[in-house]
Design a protein that fits this description.
- The protein contains 10 helices and 15 strands.
- It is of the alpha+beta class.
- The protein has 4 domains: 1-113, Orthogonal Bundle (Helix Hairpins); 121-169 and 208-267, Urease metallochaperone UreE, N-terminal domain (HSP40/DNAj peptide-binding domain); 170-207, no CATH class; 272-380, Sandwich (HSP40/DNAj peptide-binding domain), CATH 2.60.260.20.
- It has a 4-stranded mixed sheet with strand order 10-11-15-14. The chain has a 3-stranded mixed sheet with strand order 1-9-8.
- A hairpin with a 2-residue loop joins β4 and β5 (190-197).
- α2 packs antiparallel against α3 (41-55).
- The longest helix has 15 residues, at 17-31.
- The radius of gyration is 32 Å and the shape is elongated.
């Protein structure tokens, strides 16, 4: 069944680029596998991502509008400049702002509950984002990478309590250990009582009389930590790895946050990538294209032989099956597409010039051009 990318994003066919981006962000937040609890969320997220990658690019969108799904397999053929190559990119700052990286969002919603008189509980540590650059080859074949992050860790002096070693927290004398403070005020002849987090202990119910000298009572300190992560074969820019519990340390035994390692792949000087397929160009001479030749072509896995049939034209594309990228979390391997480019000699020796002159005498190119002009005359009568 043909895919309807507009329907997937819930937008009309005349939607603007801003409409497309807004719809993608909304659905990415809803279906992202790391946060969504809905059945089939991962599959739905992939559909949303595919729709966005198609419709956000003007050329891909135009081809999709004209040819539907069939256009997608030809997206990179016309131009190997790299502009049309699909990448699984995420605006993590926007998508995760509602639940991770220690900035507002869902945490604010929970903090809002304190106004109803509930005691503040231990807070989970904030999640961390770390951008990791890898080479083109490392993304294709996978690798184990080491890197260093800065994160908040448990203070080894007070063991996370915030109190100086050998001392303990004491019950707050304002809220009497409840963490909730009641305030009464008169309004229009009526006494109003409000309940909220204690102004002295902040809702903890306890106070620190002698704060830890090392962490100043925070219970945690900033520290550099060496990390190691195994990157699977087939990743691309925008893919991320989630290391659960490797983020910032949580309060009073609350769980630590997570570490999100976002991958950025360096471009390659020879190969271009679109999903699991690889695209490249190879130069051939006029004589090689005219007579046909078997040439060696560089692939991801080394040299491979490819036949160029006689009479091949510049721009002809050949498919080398199984020479592409391994699909992430799958055994399927894509293909490599090689575009043949006829290389015109810039300087000719006397012998070469003479041979080309002889060739020009017996070629029919002048006759073919005359036929074109004769055909155009019909349109201008």
């Amino acid at each position: 069944m043909a895919k309807d990318h507009y329907n997937t994003l819930g937008i009309s066919k005349d939607a603007s680029s801003d409409d497309i981006k807004a719809a993608y962000k909304k659905l990415a937040k809803k279906y992202h596998p790391d946060v969504s609890k809905e059945d089939g969320a991962e599959k739905k997220f992939k559909e949303v991502l595919e729709a966005y990658n198609t419709l956000r690019d003007p050329q891909k969108r135009q081809n999709y509008d004209r040819f539907g799904d069939a256009a997608q397999r030809f997206g990179g053929f016309g131009d190997f400049s790299g502009a049309g190559f699909q990448r699984a990119d995420f605006d993590f700052g926007d998508i995760f702002s509602d639940f991770a990286f220690g900035g507002g969002g869902m945490g604010d919603l929970f903090r809002g509950a304190f106004g109803s008189g509930r005691r503040r509980g231990p807070q989970q540590g904030e999640s961390i984002r770390f951008d990791l650059g890898i080479s083109f080859e490392e993304a294709i074949f996978g690798i184990e990478k080491k890197f260093t992050i800065e994160r908040m860790e448990e203070c080894d002096s007070c063991k996370g309590s915030g109190a100086e070693k050998g001392t303990e927290k004491v019950k707050c004398n304002v809220c009497h250990g409840t963490g909730v403070e009641e305030k009464a005020r008169r309004f229009l002849g009526t006494t109003l009582v409000t309940r909220g987090p204690c102004s002295k202990c902040g809702g903890d119910g306890e106070i620190i009389e002698r704060p830890c000298k090392k962490c100043s009572g925070a219970g945690r300190v900033k520290s550099k930590r060496k990390m190691k992560v195994k990157i699977p074969a087939g990743v691309n820019t925008g893919n991320h790895l989630r290391l659960q519990g490797q983020g910032n340390f949580g309060e009073k035994g609350a769980p630590s946050g997570d570490l999100f390692v976002v991958l950025f792949v360096d471009p390659h000087e020879f190969f271009k990538r679109d999903g699991t397929d690889i695209f490249s160009e190879i130069p051939v001479s006029f004589s090689e294209a005219a007579l046909g030749i078997e040439i060696e072509v560089p692939t991801l896995r080394g040299k491979a032989k490819m036949k160029v049939p006689h009479g091949s034209q510049s721009g002809t594309i050949f498919k080398m099956k199984g020479q592409g990228v391994k699909e992430l979390n799958s055994s399927r391997i894509g293909d490599q597409y090689v575009k043949v480019i006829l290389k015109t000699p810039e300087k000719l020796s006397k012998e070469q010039k003479k041979l080309f002159e002889e060739l020009g005498k017996i070629e029919k190119m002048k006759k073919d051009r005359k036929g074109i002009f004769d055909g155009l005359k019909k349109h201008f009568k």
